[in-house]
Design goal:
It is built from 15 helices and no strands. With 294 residues, the chain is an all-alpha fold. It is a multi-pass membrane protein.
Amino acid sequence: MENTRGYSEVEIRRRRRLMVSAAVRYIVLIVVALVMIYPIIWLVGATFKSNNEIFTSISFIPKRIDFTPYIEGWKTRTKYTFTTFFLNTFKFVIPKIVFCLVSSTLVAYGFARFEFPFKKICFSLLMATMFLPAVVTRIPLYILWKQMGLLNTYVPLIAPTIFANEPFFVFMLIQFMRSIPTYLDEAATIDGCNSFQILMKVLLPSLKPALISCTIFQFVWSFNDFLGPLIYVTSLEKYPVALALKMSIDQSSGIVEWNQILAMSFLALLPALILFFSAQKYFVEGVTSTGVKG
């Protein structure tokens, strides 16, 4: 009886320590999460504030709820509304995602499943381009697209993705493919599948988490891209959201309606947030699985 009671007391103390430790961890995580998410919360609250309230109060709670900044900000001071700018953004973001996924998958499939001369050298060169600053290629690419007469179009933004110009995605897919057992390929070959059928029917279903991760990354990067459209797009009617937001900061009138700009900035965040949270499960699985080699 004494041993049983003593064991129970030890177990109770152990459980108490575990509960205290868990409580401390959750408190720390909640505090850190609040610190990280506070700028977004403040952004939402600031969309309902006046200029004076924005710059004099750190609180995110507005004095009153008024959706006028959203209405006026959406209209803009031009003949185009943000509907046009959002549609312009999706006109090059969606093709970039599609071409990036197709080209990166094909290149990754070649490196992960085939043997060919100078494979290691080609892979090293591919990985070396990850460390090449994008600014190095800006001027040559601009001259190329200018000579081809494709400035003020979305082609310069879309075309590079046809050639798997994102080595990060290729590397991610290669690592994911290496975690898929090769005996699945062999079984498919015995059943009469060729290389393309193996990719489509065997590997692609398993690549779903990695492909969704690539989709989220490419969507966020392309949607938020400012420098690319700034260089290649000059017509107002073709502006994406990133350029439209910069255009909204018009100081020529002497007064900048920051609540309208912040309201449109929040709306510009929504597509990426919706995409991330709707595919969060596959995103985490895809990112964590790319470092595992079977």
